[in-house]
Amino acid sequence: MLSVKGADAMRYVRVPDLILPPVSNPDMEEIRFWLRIMMEHALFMRLGFPCTEADLIRQATQYQRAFEELLKESECLRPAQFKEFVERTIRLTEKIREFKRHVLHIVITCRLKLGGYNFPLLLDHISREAEYFLLVLRKVESGDTNIAYHSIIQENVFWLRIMADHSKFIRSLLDQSERRIAQQAQAFSDEFDMLLAQARDLEGFLWDFPQVPTLPRFEEDIKSSTTRLRDFKQEAKELLENCAMLSLIPVALADHVRREADHFLMIIDKIQRELSKERK
Fold this sequence. Notes:
Helix content: over 70%
Number of strands: 0
CATH topology of the largest domain: Ferritin
CATH class of the largest domain: Mainly Alpha
Shape: globular
Number of domains: 2
CATH superfamily of the largest domain: Protein of unknown function DUF2935
């Protein structure tokens, strides 16, 4: 029932930045976090389609409900059911990843004539997150809890790009009169673009080398910037809840991006503990 059909069903190409197992813990808490993220992606896609796109709205609604059902099921799962649950989650996540890429393709080829606000960068962004979740699920399947050194470099690149995208989305969805908040969002976008460029440089520098002192310092820089961005997102969420900020941003989206910043901070802490062990 949930599939991409017709001429636009494309062969999937792996995201270049996502090859190695992620740093994230392969446990149910991590799975629940991403199930909720996937459910909300389907919701935001549905809200972003023009009302004329009934079939796309219907498919997004189906994905939203399917992930909501998995999320509820995860709360009372017995150990004997875990393996089969992970397999079903992988299949559904593969399907929504394909759906996201399908929608991206029809948007960038100008086939949504009445627009909507599913920006191409947003669709690519949520596709990358689906791919990341699949890597988490594969890690769960394998039972591997180790952190590969180069997974740390990959993690930085992935999450810094996510944070930079969030800043751009906030800026784009603000009313034009919100000049101060728009300026803050643009400043965060520039800051995380710069950190992303530095992370890609380190990715090249460190591929054939053991840990160097630059990396722990860089993680501290990332942590400081992400903490400030998380606080900015929390402030934006509170303003939206009090109808004190003019924008097209749903409160649910503001909460969504704030939770992802919190998740990145948790991963940074994990990376820093791992790097600390390596130095001893």
